[in-house]
Specification:
mainly alpha; two-stranded antiparallel sheet
Length: about 100
């Protein structure tokens, strides 16, 4: 669609008067005192409305274990130093004789 008439600065300003960003409103967690979005779970402790919704400590432990295992896999793949079992070493010793 083509604009047929030029808009004055006042008209454009009136239209843009609602484009301003509003400040974020935050609530204080009743359990740990951290700031969080209203009507949302606290991201620090996992509580909402005075009760625990998610066990964030358990989830963080699982995530850390998963990341650690992934780093070990990557290290083994890049280094080509796979763990050697007893059977493999016995076979290599026999081949050298």
């Amino acid at each position: 669609m083509v604009i047929r008439m030029r808009h004055t600065r006042g008209h454009s300003g009136n239209r843009r008067s609602h484009h301003a960003l509003k400040a974020v409103s935050l609530s204080t967690c009743s359990h740990c005192g951290a700031q969080h979005r209203p009507h949302h779970m606290c991201l620090e402790c996992g509580y909402y409305n005075g009760r625990q919704v998610m066990n964030l400590e358990e989830l963080k432990a699982k995530r850390d274990a998963r990341i650690k295992a992934k780093k070990e896999r990557i290290k083994l793949d890049l280094g080509d130093t796979a763990p050697v079992t007893g059977e493999e070493t016995a076979e290599k010793i026999e081949e050298k004789k």
